[in-house]
Amino acid sequence: MVRRILLGSQLRRLRESRGVTREAAGYSIRASESKISRMELGRVSFKARDVEDLLTLYGVTDGAERDALLGLAREANVAGWWHSYGDVLPGWFQTYVGLEGAASSIRGYEVQFVHGLLQTEEYVHAVVSRGQPEASRSEVERRVALRLERQKLLVSERGPEFHVVLDEAALHRPYGGSKVMRGQLRHLIEISERPQVTLQIMPFSFGGHSGESGAFTMLRFPESDLPDVVYLEQLTSALYLDKRDEVAQYERAMERLHDDSLTPESSRELLAKILQRL
I need a surface site. Which of 106, 199, 228, 263 has the fewest CB within 10 A? Predict the structure, then answer.
């Protein structure tokens, strides 16, 4: 996904620098203007022949530059590991998993649940079983395995900086019962000590706060060509926001959440207190 977006943005920049319209670009590869638009947004796969013809149209004759872009096109068409979970992974969430895996920074706010990257296996099982009551046992296990696979991000050498604010409500909602919640709280205390993980709690005592619109996740990428993305999950779909003014509003909300929530140290103390009561 990220490679497609990156290649698409580079093709768009080349086209615009040459003053070529989308219609003319589409004609050169025997396609429509809308196909060029989808390619430039990274929403479709790339054929090597199409990329070669577009590079020729845009006057890219340097062998090294052409090879780099054609190599990117090949990489963009390689299926990610998550495609093997296509039977339990809706298309709109496959996009997120791809973006999550390529991000250099993940920041988010959660209300209902502990963030998916921080859930224990038992907690994941309880959440999936509650959310998918009609799912078969094998489907539940597949969904659990998918989430655990995603969590490998936090222990990889090139893992992202991860900063999450959990509403205190998520810590009191007993998914799986007291035993599961005790394990989950202990896990949060432990994982919050990792250098790339920052965990803060928004306590009930603060009252109203900037996360009033609900849960959201912000993704930032190491490639300077890629904009930050805000991910908003819904029941049957998701929104991906990348317009600068919209992302900026969530950026401000995230900064206020960081400032108003308990510090990481105080958050661990609150987790320990809740754990003692269970």
Answer: 263
H or E, element range at 93 = helix 91-102
pLDDT confidence of residue 94: 85
Q: For residue 22, give its domain range.
A: 2-76
Give me the numbers of helices (H) and strands (E) for the chain, helices first please: 12, 6
Burial status of residue 42 (CB atoms within 10 A of its CB: 0-12, 13-18, 19 or more): buried
**87 and 162 inside one domain:** yes
Per residue in 48-107, pLDDT (tens digit) is 999 999 999 999 999 988 998 998 888 888 878 888 898 999 888 988 998 898 899 999
Q: How many domains does the chain have?
A: 2
Looking at residue 195, what DSSP letter applies?
T
Residues in Cβ contact with 39 at an 8 Å cutoff, skipping those fewer than 6 apart = 8, 11, 46, 50
State the CATH number of the domain containing residue 43. 1.10.260.40
Q: Is 246 helix (H, G, I), strand (E, B) or coil?
A: helix
Reported pTM: 0.81
